[in-house]
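S., here's the first fold you wanted:
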Amino acid sequence: MAARSQERRSERLEVRVPPSLHNRVSQAAALRGQTLAAFVTAAVQDAAQRAIEDAEVTRLNRNDFAALVRALDTEAEPNHALRAAAARHSAITGHA
């Protein structure tokens, strides 16, 4: 399977934008020394990657991460909700 950067086929993606945005994007592309199509393609690819990562990756600040680590390191007896969830899991899957 060919890598995405080496794909030979391409799909057309059309979007209508206000003239002011078109001018701004054209200016940005020129400043980067890129064609308008190359600039927009790279920007869309970056935005898509960020959107996917935002949906798939959970980020914690230092305080929340420290609280998570403390919670994971603390040995505690399972509470009622956890015991009930484990019982439901066992009933559904047949695994203890």
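And the second, which I think is the more interesting of the pair:
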Amino acid sequence: MKTFSASAPLAPPCAGRLQSIDALRGLVMLFMLLDHVRETFYLHLQVPDPMVVADTPPGLFFPRMLAHLCAPVFVFLTGLGAYLYASRHADAGQAQAAASGFLWRRGLFLVLLEVTVVNFAWTFQFPPAKVFLQVIWAIGLSMLALSVLVWLPRQALLLLGAVLVAGHNLLDGLHFPAGHLLHAPWAILHDRGWLELAGVQLRTSYPVLPWIGVIALGYGIGPWFGRACGAAQRQRRLLVAGVACLLGFGVLRTLNGYGDAPWQAGASTLHTVMSWFNVTKYPPSLLFLLLTLGVGLLLLHAFEARAGRPWLQPLGTLGAAPMFFYVLHLYVLKFMYLAAVAVWGANKGQLFGLDHLLWLWVLASVLAVALYPAVRWFAALKQRRRDLAWLKYL
């Protein structure tokens, strides 16, 4: 594979939006919706990270496993999208400058969005006593990091991404107490914890170091989606990469020596299988990323092979306006929860919650259908009004 530099042009992208990318993003957004319904109406059934297999019913375990796909796919496709945005320019220097500027602006926007609009959707507190720095924050900081890393040669960028993904678990034992000079930066980079700023508590829910590796890998595979790479070659590369990730997961998980907390035999075959797949998300372990990115790459391969099929269109529509969908569904869920409390009251201590897990799937399905027209309208608006630059940020 070629290494592009400031003097070499990037591989031009395929024309127009790629349905496979939008469809994959749309699919994981549905998984995200399912998980956020769980976090809204089943908060009385806490799901720690990693999950405690003996205490987690399969009806909660497997939806949570589906939701594990969301953040890795989002971040990976963000890197890929940045490459495709850059490759509109024939000159590599101009392309990298365009990508760097866009990533910097978009990253700052996402960080601001997380601590204002998104955090308010979760807490409905203003001014907030606590701010949870979650996935939008992690994507924003990863974009800021990538805005600098895009100037590296592609092979160096891929190598750095692989080192961060594969090697960050070597740092798991490194901690700095509150008050230490490195406590705050390390909490942001790798060690999930609490910070305090101007009387507000900040929870670094998504330490960003491994996510920087994921976004770098997404940017690094960008040439696979250029015109110089045919559809068959692209699909073959996606298939090989996906299978390699899953094989790596299988080997390392079976050896039980590195990349996550060890799995253990359970009281039943089902519990043993659950333990084997029970991976750590905060921060994402090597095994978490091998499993989720492997599945994501195979899904992207499958969508590439079936481009143009009618059933992909709704997923592609959802994936064409991801930030709009994200913000919209958070506020809809919050108002639904407040309405439930007003009508039925708190029935789970201080919380309102549902008992039957079947409602998790029912509510998520109803919401997906109900929100689809608004998302379709906004996606069409983005396509129609390319003169409105701010629409790109949503």
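Why I say that: The first helix runs from residue 19 to 41. The longest strand covers residues 200-204.

Talk tomorrow,
H.
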